[in-house]
Design a protein that fits this description.
The protein is α/β, with parallel strands linked by helices. It has 14 helices and 15 strands. The longest helix has 18 residues. It binds 6-O-phosphono-beta-D-glucopyranose (BG6).
């Protein structure tokens, strides 16, 4: 079979390592259930875990996951999902576990192995798969965080590539499976009016905020090993930056998109400690699994530069945090002021200059803000938003989309080795060397020190959900 055929052959089974864990319960089983409902899953699903489960317990666990995630249950779909399940219990360090898995898979070709396990176990499982001959013509789906710094990401890539070719490795960043994020790519390159202004001549700065009005919940121990910069900025927010900043792909096809995105990560200037402000919400140290003197950041704001012809000198401000005032994700592309002030109310005296605003969540929306004159003798006006919103009520959830794509061998919405490493290289210098995290009040917009980063750029734009969904 040639490479092209191999890439598009649907997986004959889905193997989930970590089937009894949190990720499987929260994300994977609900996605599989949705796939069954939409007629997109009809192959065996083999759960692998070290827990001593029997099939009844696994069925209960899956049913519980579906019930927690869906108000109304489609019993036929749930029964069908349960009928696809099989289970292999055993220690990942024991070759016997992989032998049992091989027996369970029998003659099935092209299994997709999903590693829903802590990154510390990736190497063990990948070599177990290789040694048992389970990696041939197979795919591996790897969850984020892909590494915890540049060195560990390189090591992980080395291990994965020693067993699987790059086009059989699917590194998940669930942001890439979101409609609103795919729309960034579409909006940029399906419209002609944008390109002339989409550069340092017209854009003053770009801000991206991903805020959540809840804490680390029961993930304290994970958060202690990650922190906000690793958890969402190096991956989710950087992916958004790449889509906003990339050059037009040279041809139609995701290979070209991957190439242009990787160039953006390579052109990002490595951060230095004065580019970032870290914060920690008051009460974080009392969370389960968190050290009493933890300095791990639950908030991070940073200033980034892309050293390219198009973006020279344009600051990109990124910010994310737990226990902030709203749960929302929004991009603000701030345009420059007109060259001269002809009217008394002109910016910057009266608010922001024109901007483009992309709301990514909780609802998808896009607004272009421009000034219009108020009726009357005086030449004064207001900034108004020309507002577009397009939401599909029955949208595929990111995990459903990404799992389906990985099982079909479509790597368009996954991250590539070079891009992941280049993104780590940007944050690497500040992972260990940084100022202490400032405490902030839950429900605020993070520590006031983060304002200093954007003081010359009109301050932070706080997503305001208000009464409407705008
Ligand atoms: C995950 C992070 O990758 O993304 C979480 O681990 C974060 O901490 C989540 O809450 C945000 O994703 P979403 O889709 O809810 O915006």
């Amino acid at each position: 079979m040639n490479e092209a055929n191999k890439r598009t052959t649907p997986a004959g089974a889905l193997v989930i390592f970590g089937a009894t864990g949190d990720l499987a319960h929260k994300m994977i089983f609900p996605a599989l259930y949705a796939m069954v409902k939409h007629g997109n899953l009809n192959v065996p699903v083999v759960g692998v875990a070290s827990s001593k489960y029997n099939m009844l317990q696994l069925h209960q666990r899956v049913t519980d996951s579906i019930k927690q995630n869906n108000k109304i249950i489609d019993q036929t779909a749930l029964d069908h999902l349960l009928s696809l399940l099989q289970y292999v219990g055993g220690d990942y360090r024991d070759p016997g576990t992989f032998k049992s898995l091989k027996q369970t898979l029998g003659n099935i070709k092209h299994p997709a192995h999903y590693l829903a396990i802590p990154p510390g176990l990736f190497a063990t499982v990948i070599s177990g798969l290789g040694a048992a001959g389970l990696a041939e013509e197979a795919r591996v789906i790897v969850e984020k965080p892909f590494g915890r710094d540049l060195a560990s990401a390189r090591e992980l890539n080395r291990i994965a590539l020693s067993t699987f070719p790059e086009d059989s490795i699917f590194r998940i960043d669930h942001y890439l499976g979101k409609e609103a994020i795919m729309n960034i790519l579409y909006f940029r390159f399906a419209n002609s009016f944008l390109e002339p202004i989409w550069n340092r001549n017209y854009i003053a700065s770009v801000q991206i905020t991903l805020s959540e009005n809840f804490g680390v919940k029961n993930r304290g121990a994970f958060y202690e090993s990650a922190g906000c910069l690793r958890d969402v900025i190096q991956n989710h927010l950087f992916q958004i930056v790449a889509l906003l900043a990339m050059e037009p792909p040279a041809y139609q096809g995701f290979g070209a998109v991957h190439m242009e995105k990787a160039k953006i990560f390579q052109a990002m200037r490595a951060l230095n400690p004065s580019d970032i402000v870290r914060g920690q919400y008051i009460g974080y140290r009392n969370e389960n699994g968190v050290s009493l003197n933890s300095d791990v950041e639950t908030f991070c704001a940073l200033r980034l530069f892309i050293d390219s012809w198009r973006w020279e000198g344009v600051p990109w401000f990124l910010r994310s945090g737990k226990f902030l005032a709203e749960t929302a994700a929004e991009i603000l592309v701030q345009l420059k002021n007109p060259p001269q002030r002809l009217f008394d109310d002109s910016t910057p005296v009266n608010g922001r200059a024109n901007y483009l605003r992309f709301r990514l969540s909780p609802n998808a929306a896009l607004a272009l803000a421009a000034r219009v004159k108020r009726a009357g003798k005086e030449f004064i006006g207001d900034q108004r938003e020309l507002f577009m919103q397009d939401e599909q009520p029955e949208e595929e959830a990111p995990y459903e989309r990404l799992l389906g794509d990985a099982m079909c061998g479509d790597g368009a919405l996954f991250t590539r080795e070079d891009a992941v490493e280049a993104a780590w290289a940007v944050v690497d210098p500040v992972l260990e060397i940084h100022d202490q995290a400032y405490l902030y009040k839950p429900g605020s917009w993070g520590p006031c020190q983060s304002e200093a980063l954007v003081i010359d750029h009109g301050g932070w734009h706080n997503p305001n959900l208000g009464k409407t969904k705008k």
